[in-house]
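In the current project phase, the collection of sequences with tokenised folds has grown. One resulting record follows, to show the layout:
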Amino acid sequence: MVERATYGITAVRYAGAQIVEAMMGLIDSSQKRWDLRPAPTRLTDVVDRLVEGDTVISLFPDGEGHLQPGPEVKVDVLPEGTETLALDPEAPGRTLRDLPRF
């Protein structure tokens, strides 16, 4: 059995209304620290990780400067056929638009 990697997204970059990059890093198996700290990652590379079967989660800042796990990230296809990202499930205060921008 192949263990899938878990990545975390801490911020997003938009061009207009479209996500174009995410600050994404590799989380260790205990999900308590980074194996690879977040770095700017193109949208297509995030989608590739998801298509390969890896898990990508959102990480939201709390009031104490820590990151709290949020919903998993999934690939979403817009009506015109463009791939983008969405959270599964989205909740008030826990959408991709609620993540910090970079």
